[in-house]
Amino acid sequence: MIDGLPMVVPEPGLPDRVRIHEVGPRDGLQNEKAVVPVEVKAEFIRRLADAGLATIEATSFVHPKWVPQLADAERLMPMLDGVAARLPVLVPNERGLERALALGVREIAVFGSVTESFAKANLNRTVDESLEMFAPVVATAREAGVTVRGYLSMCFGDPWEGAVPVGQVARVARRLLDLGCDELSLGDTIGVATPGHVGAVLTALGAAGVPVERLAVHFHDTYGQALSNTLAALRHGVRVVDASAGGLGGCPYAKSATGNLATEDLVWMLDGLGIETGVDLGRLTATSVWMAGHLGRPSPSRTVRALSPQEL
Amino acid sequence: MIDGLPMVVPEPGLPDRVRIHEVGPRDGLQNEKAVVPVEVKAEFIRRLADAGLATIEATSFVHPKWVPQLADAERLMPMLDGVAARLPVLVPNERGLERALALGVREIAVFGSVTESFAKANLNRTVDESLEMFAPVVATAREAGVTVRGYLSMCFGDPWEGAVPVGQVARVARRLLDLGCDELSLGDTIGVATPGHVGAVLTALGAAGVPVERLAVHFHDTYGQALSNTLAALRHGVRVVDASAGGLGGCPYAKSATGNLATEDLVWMLDGLGIETGVDLGRLTATSVWMAGHLGRPSPSRTVRALSPQEL
């Protein structure tokens, strides 16, 4: 890094602090074909926490048949004892919740869809049926004192349906809050959003009684739009941003190698804006370079590439 | 492309129209080692114009020894007769201007530096000496009725000096305007800017009497920041944005393959915001894929990759 860069210049209307919800170990790795050894996953999470990430989505309790990469959840979680970060896990249904609770998990997430096409493709259910499936999961988790995040996928566009009406996003968001979700993450699963659209969705959610304090945004960089959409969301009051170390992960429905917003690119912008994240960019970049070595290909993050030449 | 995407949602405070200053044929190609045949360059420019780009920086009249890739300027320009676009060219000095004027060029650009280190490295002069060198070039061009653009490089950071004081940018900008430049392009040559910094520089320029109507921005995507910085500049009144088709080009001083903001990623955002550019994204992407074939490597533009799988 060049001393004194990025230059810190705050901007009015933006928050002092943003919480990054790191999704690399779960969302980033889940589509990797070659199974990453559980020891490497544990080390990855430990390094992310050491770099200052305070929330790290660790794994998924989906049936091993569907996501073989994360079939080691029962082995992974006990290896993370003592990691100084919140470690939410994805839980698809009641069986997954039982497995997570048996391991002492304190935070879970359910993965819903705003569109019928993706609910059918991903969950083999209608949107309403999937919400019914989540209802007992959320209720049981809450009774156990477990925090629940609700993911809403395809909030800005869908490969089958095209543009998604903002009212449809608001309806599903309202339902997930009513089920008892503590936080909602608005996913641009195929990366098609632009800043005005982000503002329109957030405004519609506000009008539907969804407080912005309970929202996170989850942008994909498929069309290079993730960071400017994040900036738009911050201007609208969002304070929690999902990102993936090194830009790991991709959506199998997009014809592109690029996936999640890279945590490093986000931290560069937030550092420049003087917005606290608690993350040390140098340590984070070193972690992504180390992980890229295990995966055998360079990180797609622009910031990682600029700061650390990778010979892969 | 998926029908109906990006969804068009305008945002208050942004312009109705942006003029894209396409720099691919000059800035994008100048660092390519293998010389691109002049016929391919002419075809590239013709295709860019057909895709709706109204300003295309065509080549440079720098001494062929320094930029061998653009040594064919005298052959290229006559091949562009009838291309329906403004075709500015870079001109380093009086000799370059003579060559350009002899070919009937109607718009030129001079390439200055805000920092002493880069002026020394790139021009082997101090900043003041380089401005003295430009003075007769600008004066002669203006007398001939030729429009002059002034590039300011290293406006946001410099690999040797780190952060660049905003007052230093304003001073050089003011001097270039006083010399007679019609338009100034603020370059983030190493891609380190963030949105608050962009606002601070534009505010300082306004205070120094540089009208925003005469400004363009030229962001590099080295750290993934180019598009969010562009959004910040649009909010501050900038209406001209430099970009490079397919993201062609890179800065030899940055350890990264990524260079200029990709025109396609910019157009995706502006299309979504309902901001007119006159550009047809499908034709532009096809042009970048065609050019990537000639260069033998895939375009780094996220949008190009998402819209057109490239087998390179």
Automatic annotation (TrEMBL), chains A, B:
> This protein is called what?
Hydroxymethylglutaryl-CoA lyase
Keyword Metal-binding included in the entry's annotation: yes
Q: List the GO biological process terms.
A: ketone body biosynthetic process; L-leucine catabolic process
- Give EC number(s), comma-separated: 4.1.3.4
- Keyword Phosphoprotein listed: no
Q: Which residues cross the membrane?
A: none
Extract the GO molecular function terms from the UniProt entry: hydroxymethylglutaryl-CoA lyase activity; metal ion binding
Q: Which NCBIfam families match?
A: PRK05692.1
| Protein family according to the UniProt entry | Belongs to the HMG-CoA lyase family.
Report keywords, A-Z: Lyase, Metal-binding
> Residue span of the signal peptide, if any?
none
Q: Which domain of life is it from?
A: Bacteria
Q: Residue limits of the Pyruvate carboxyltransferase domain?
A: 18-285
